[in-house]
Amino acid sequence: MSRRRVASREDDVADGLGFLTSYGILVPPAVVGALAALPEYSDEPLLDGRVRITRRITGGTLRHVGHAVRLVLELEEAGMALPAGVSLADLLRCLLYHDLGKRQPELRPGDVVVPSRVFEDGKLHAARSAALLREHGEDGRVVEEMVRYHHHGEGELPEGLARGVRGALRTVQLVDGLSAAVTRRDAAVYVVQDELCSSRVGVEEVHPGTGRVVYHMITTGGGGGEKKKKKQPHPY
Ligand SMILES: [Fe+2]
Ligand SMILES: [Fe+2]
After folding, report:
1. pLDDT tens, 70-104?
2. Reported pTM
3. Residue 89, domain member (yes or no)
4. How many domains does the chain have?
């Protein structure tokens, strides 16, 4: 079993954006500027449901995008499969633009807030981001739908999405969440791979503050290994 740390908070964001260029994706300076102007916040929960802001992360949304790009490339390298109809470039374009329409409040460390009152529903910025795509020459239906629905739950998605979008949204949401954990919570993310069975890849998310560890299984679509099939336990 190998375990490799990926996309740490110290990683240079410029690298993440540089990868986009190397995949032939145009990164307009106006988009970089708009993302860099959006702060993100770290917070700690209080017992009454409110949170205390502990840190203002300048250029936070740009960092978040840089981390997300690095993560998706690492997962792809580990063998993660994308659904037919969605390319890696589509996924990278989606990550670049997904939070462009975000509006963040101005908060300071020490502020105590009710998150649902100060941060708007993610579906609103998702719709704004999707509407902004055309301004930057991105008119593909797949990317537009992935951006528009990146905060929708699986049961809330409309019928008739472009081929592959429903499946690819799971990857977008996983990477979005992992990147937020790296950017805002100093989480460490590891790709865990079973050398005996190449189709078994996972992502482990370790939160140093709380000691919480979350494990996500990744489907690679790989051929799998030669491991002997275990006898299945009786279902009841
Ligand atoms: Fe978002
Ligand atoms: Fe995001």
Report:
1. 999 988 888 888 889 999 999 999 999 999 999 99
2. 0.87
3. yes
4. 1
Q: Which domain holds residue 14?
A: 9-185
**Position 215 in a domain:** no
Q: Which ligand has its closest atom nearest to the C-alpha of 124?
A: 1
For residue 62, the ligand closest to its alpha carbon is 2
The rounded distance, in Å, linking the Cα atoms of 70 and 171 is 13
pLDDT in tens, 32-56: 999 999 999 999 889 898 999 999 9
Residue 150 CA to ligand 1 centre (angstroms): 7
Task: Determine, yes or no, domain membership for 201.
Answer: no
Going from the Cα of 197 to the center of ligand 2, the distance in angstroms, rounded, reads 32
Task: For residue 95, report the distance from its CA to the centre of ligand 2, in Å.
Answer: 8
Give the ligand whose atoms come closest to the C-alpha of residue 65: 2
Q: Give the Å distance between the CA of 198 and the centre of ligand 2.
A: 29
Domain assignment of residue 94, yes or no: yes
